[in-house]
């Protein structure tokens, strides 16, 4: 598939990332865009790592010094899920040596325990 080119060199700095994420959000899975920028967008990649873990591809096509071109590909329709847990729901135990054993989830049920 043909890549859409997105040149953000002329945009104001506060407008760059929102524009790029909007263009990325409009991509179908498997499609990509070629980002053209006047600096290495390292911080943008950090944002992609945080907001779309495992959901994008990042390939440098040109690495400056005046122009950077990066192919950004949409790999999934939604980012990988983040798992949040209440640590109070984990049972902590210590082994015979006094060291903590790995955490195990506590199963909460309303049924009485088996006999």
Could you walk me through the main structural features you see in this protein, from its secondary elements to its overall organization?
The strands form two sheets. The chain has a four-stranded mixed β-sheet with strand order 1-2-4-3, covered by helices on one side. A two-stranded antiparallel ribbon has the order 5-6. The chain has two helices and six strands, in the order E-H-E-H-E-E-E-E. The longest helix is centred in the first third of the chain and has 13 residues, at 13-25. It is 20% helix and 25% strand. With 115 residues, it is an alpha+beta fold. The protein has a domain at 4-74: TusA-like domain (Translation Initiation Factor IF3, 2-Layer Sandwich), CATH 3.30.110.40.
Describe, in short, the structure shown.
With 115 residues, this protein is of the alpha+beta class. 20% of the residues lie in helices and 25% in strands.
Number of strands: 6
Class of secondary structure makeup: alpha+beta
> Strands across the major sheet, in which order?
1-2-4-3
Rg over CA atoms, rounded to whole Å, is: 22 Å
Fourth-level CATH superfamily of one domain = TusA-like domain
- What is the oligomer described by this structure? single chain
Shape: elongated
Overall pLDDT: 84
Looking at the overall shape, the CATH architecture of one domain is 2-Layer Sandwich
CATH class of one domain: Alpha Beta
- Tell me the strand percentage band: 25-35%
> What are the segments in which pLDDT stays under 50 over at least 5 consecutive residues?
none
Largest sheet: 4 strands, mixed
Helix-strand string: EHEHEEEE
| N→C terminal distance | 62 Å
CATH topological fold name of one domain: Translation Initiation Factor IF3
Percent helix, as a range, is: 10-25%
Helix count equals 2
